[in-house]
Amino acid sequence: MASHGIRDKVAIIGMGCTNFGEHWNKSTDDLLIDSSSAALASAGIALDDIDAFWLGTMGSGLSGLTLSRPLKIQHKPVTHVENYCATGSEAFRNACYAVASGAYDIVMAIGVEKLKDSGYSGLVVSAPASDGTQATVTAPASFSLLAPAYANKYGVDEAELKDVLTRIAWKNHRNGALNSRAQFKKEVSKETIAASPLIAGQLGIFDCSGVSDGSAAAIIVRVEDAHKYTDRPIYVKALSFVAGPAAGPIDPSYDYTTFDEVVHSANDAYKQAGITDPRAELAMAEVHDCFTPTELVLMEDLGFAERGTAWKEVLAGTYDLDGELPVNPDGGLKSFGHPIGASGLRMLFECWTQLRGEAGARQIPGVGQKDSVKTKALTHNLGGAPGACVSFVSVVGSELD
Amino acid sequence: MTGIISYGAYIPYWRLQRSTLASALGSGGAKGARAVASFDEDTTSMGVEASRIALRGVSEKYSPQSLWFATAEPGYLDKTNANAIHAALSLDISVNAFDCLGSVRSGIAAVHAAACGTSIAVLSDIRTGLPGGSDESMGGDGAASFCFGSENVIAELLSTGTSTSEFVDRWRTPGDQASKQWEERFGEYAYAPLVEVAFNEALQKANLTAADVSHSIFSGLHARAVKAAPKSCGINLDTLRDDFAATLGNSGTAHWGVMLANVLDTAQPNEVIAIVVLADGVNVILLRTTDALSAHQKQQDPSLTVQAQIAAGRNDLSYAQFLTWRGFLHREPPRRPEPDRPAGPPSLRTAAWKYGLYGSRDESGFIYLPPARVSLQSGSIDKMEMVRMADIRATIATYTVDHLAFSMSPPVVAAVIDFDGGGRFQCELTDVDPATVKIGDRVEMSFRKLYTQDGIHNYFWKAKPVRAGVK
Q1: A346 touches A338 (CB < 8 A)
Q2: Which residue pairs, CB below 8 angstroms and at least 24 apart, start in B227-235?
Q3: Interchain proximity A200–B402, CB inside 8 Å
Q4: Which residues form the ChsH2 C-terminal OB-fold domain (chain B) (predicted)?
Q5: What mean pLDDT is predicted for residues A55-64?
Q6: Candidates 3.40.50.300, 3.40.47.10, 3.30.1480.10, 3.30.365.10; correct CATH number of A139-208+238-397?
Q7: If you ran DSSP here, which 8-state letter would residue B340 be given?
Q8: DSSP-derived secondary structure for B239-285
Q9: Which residues of A249-260 are buried (b: 16+ CB within 10 A; e: fewer)?
Q10: Which residue of B has its CA nearest to A148?
Q11: Given this model, what pLDDT does residue B302 score?
Q12: Nearest-5° Cα angle at B38, B33 to B41
């Protein structure tokens, strides 16, 4: 399979991200206007300067009109993309390719989701007409299948695993407490997390990501044009997107301790970016911590820990803000919140912020400085359920290779 | 010689102790328990389960002409309920499926019709009444299925007798949740002569006397009339067989079928069984067991006898849960959208899967649930054979308890199960205690009603634990 990538061909020159949370007073239109305005201001350009748009939303609107109507875009191409919870990343990936191809000079990738207007708990996804035989379990139930399978395979007892999951939630809340844009801006004690009411399997309410509204946007140009707009562009090193045969739920050999799709997309992305030791080379990673066991398993799938050891690394603080490889320094889906179509771009926003040294109280030590050794960051975004998902991995960096 | 060649009774898992009625309502509370169909069962799904048991006892060559389904509590009007049973049993397209609906006497009609040839009669009922009434406490839920034919007959049909009379004893207007009954003593008066007429007719046609009867089954919703009937027939009271008043309650249309299945579980060859059903008249059926019954009993799974199913029941259903399941108590639902109605066209396209639980198997032996057209390994298209999974047992690979998902009876217990011989499937568990589920537990498939939306019943399969002591 050929996957050549577009390493160092395009760059991000501006980004915007709204606060995530329960925006009772803001519509989808408002969120789009706010994030796009912030991104344009960040790049120092006007809406008219954008040649084409990629809009990611899973359920907050259909077609390019969802963006062109509120922004009053004057007859430009607006592409609506959807790829489950990786929708925002998919908007970004396609926007990058459009610039790399030479078709456009300046494009915007923007993601949005308005989840809190549904009136329901958790995520609600409308499905096409069906025969009614599909499993009706909720997202937390699907992902909760990872926990007993992981514990069983690696001989971790139930109480110990609960400590591991609790520590992941605790870490992401602690990071989110330093982030003014996060949905949950406060630390939560491990005792409170561990004692929260059960939602599915071993997962309590604090093991689940925040259901929220929000939007984020990025402006992308060719690398050779980047310095016209900013002294500190962020270069795209790798973009990988994988959809698998969704065979986990039908294949007895699948053991619910890994996401094959993530392994494939990570390997592809590392090859595109020339990364051989991700744990040592990356300055940070934003990963799809939709539920705490997801982050645990991702540490192994992304090569941040040997198989069967991520639970020990979590307990050792390897992925803390001041650890060896900070993971979800902005609080992740857990405390930043998870407005589906915006999340992939929100992850990139944290890379943009950290690699430019603009993260303030949560700035990772030694990252984002002129003399920083580690200049690359990773985002990982997935959609679906264990055994049947889509996975996106990007690598971005502040230096050209 | 025609008669019954195989049979099955289905007793739902749940029991409501009648004492719970007294503690909830402050009155009533007879002794014993009643059987309760789960929230995901209806008369159609229970009919499927009883028929699956019955069909285990027939040869592969058994080719029924018709399936006759009788119930007083149908899932649908206008639409034939028997068709879902036909589909779940994967009967051939050429086999008829008919309903006999509405009255308790319909069960007799189904058996009369089926006994005329090589056909299946399915009797099923869910009985309830207004809270605090005797129908609620003394009713029961269950189903029975009988395969008729002329080869390997285990109980020969000797004769029938009948009497019919129009009188107002028990009635229910369509749509009502409970039936009404006239003063009890009137019904007793009206039934008495009808019993004698029908019973004597049957005896005469068979050249038998009451003394020839080894097992007698008296059934009907009028308890006093049923109790008085054996004496007026001149039946030896020692031949009266368990009416399950203490353990299951009266399952109406299906009741005499369940009683007959229980008798057939242990009867000896060459015994006469008398069935007397009091329902808007009286119907009598006389059967004689054959030598083939012994062999049939020997090959039967001991966990599927009526007594074994009674013993396997779960005794701690709360009255509030019972009322909720039967629609008398509207509880706060989870803050989640209700499921979509199952759509007609996809349900037709996937009927073999949805109703028959067929998967597809590729050249390598990999089994796809639901059936797939493309092989995972080779990518070959349409090189598949269909394989029925409904009667294959499975093992739980992993599971979760979902407190958030929409259900009439939360939490939803969802499991990934691996079938013996291949095939993985993610489905709901039913008739299960969430606290005791473990990886490695053994399960078997059960036909259920997942939910009803826009009046459409979403029938599909769930897995339930294989009960202890099962071979």
Answers
A1: no
A2: B228/B188, B228/B191, B228/B192, B229/B191, B229/B195, B229/B276, B229/B278, B232/B192, B232/B195, B232/B196, B233/B195, B233/B196, B233/B199, B233/B274, B233/B276, B234/B210, B235/B210, B235/B274
A3: yes
A4: 387-448
A5: 97
A6: 3.40.47.10
A7: P
A8: GB----TTTT-B-GGGHHHHHHHHHHHHPPTT-EEEEEEESSEEEEE
A9: bbbbebbbbbbb
A10: B398
A11: 94
A12: 130
Contact A130 B343 (CB under 8 A): yes
Q: Is the pLDDT confidence value at B181 over 80? A: yes
DSSP string, B386-443: EEE-TT--EEEEEEEEESSS--SSSPEEEEEEEETTS-EEEEEE-S--GGG--TT-EE
The residue with tokens 């592409």 is: A79
CA distance B441 to chain A (A): 14
State the CATH architecture for A10-119+213-226: 3-Layer(aba) Sandwich (3.40)
Report residue A126's pLDDT band, with 50, 70 and 90 as the boundaries.
Answer: confident
C-beta separation of B192 from B205 below 8 A: no
ipTM: 0.92
**Which residues in chain A are closer than 8 Å to B395, comparing Cβ atoms?**
none
Fold of the CATH domain B3-325: Peroxisomal Thiolase; Chain A, domain 1 (3.40.47)
Which residue is it, tokens 């900070």? A326
Q: What pTM value is reported for the model?
A: 0.95
Percent of chain B beyond pLDDT 70? 99
Enclosing H/E stretch for B84: helix B82-88
Kindly report the average pLDDT of chain B as a whole number.
Answer: 95
Element holding A292 (H helix, E strand): helix A292-301
pLDDT tier, A120 (very low <50, low <70, confident <90, very high otherwise): confident
Identify the band that residue B471 occupies on the pLDDT scale cut at 50, 70 and 90: very low
Going from N- to C-terminal start, the domains of chain B cover 3-325, 345-465
Q: Is the pLDDT of residue B334 over 90?
A: no
Name the nearest CA neighbour of A290 among A214, A381, A224, A156: A381
Distance from CA of B422 to the nearest CA of A (A): 8
Across the interface, whether the CB atoms of A136 and B340 are under 8 A apart is answered no
Task: Taking residues A18-26, report their average pLDDT.
Answer: 97
pLDDT of residue B470: 45
Contact call for B458 and A119, based on CB within 8 A: no
Are A124 and B347 an interchain contact pair (Cβ–Cβ within 8 Å)? no
- CA A29, A30, A35, A41 dihedral sign is positive
Across the interface, which of B336, B402, B424 has its CB nearest the CB of A251? Answer: B424
Q: How confident is the model over A348-359, as pLDDT tens digits? A: 999 999 999 999
- B202-224 mean pLDDT: 98
Confidence band of A123 (pLDDT split at 50, 70, 90): confident
Beta-carbon count within 10 A of A13 CB: 25
Measured between beta carbons, which residues in chain B are less than 8 angstroms from residue A252?
397, 418, 422-424
Nearest Cα to B276, choosing from B252, B256, B254, B248? B256
Band of pLDDT at residue B336, cut at 50, 70 and 90? confident
Task: Select the residue of B336, B343, B376 nearest A121 (Cβ to Cβ).
Answer: B336
Find all residues with CB under 8 Å of A227, minimum gap 6, and list them.
A233
Q: How far apart are CA A37 and CA B158, in angstroms?
A: 89
Question: What confidence tier does B337 reach under pLDDT thresholds 50, 70, 90?
Answer: confident
CATH topology of domain B345-465: OB fold (Dihydrolipoamide Acetyltransferase, E2P) (2.40.50)
- Percentage of chain A exceeding pLDDT 70: 100
- Residue B446 pairs in a beta bridge with B462
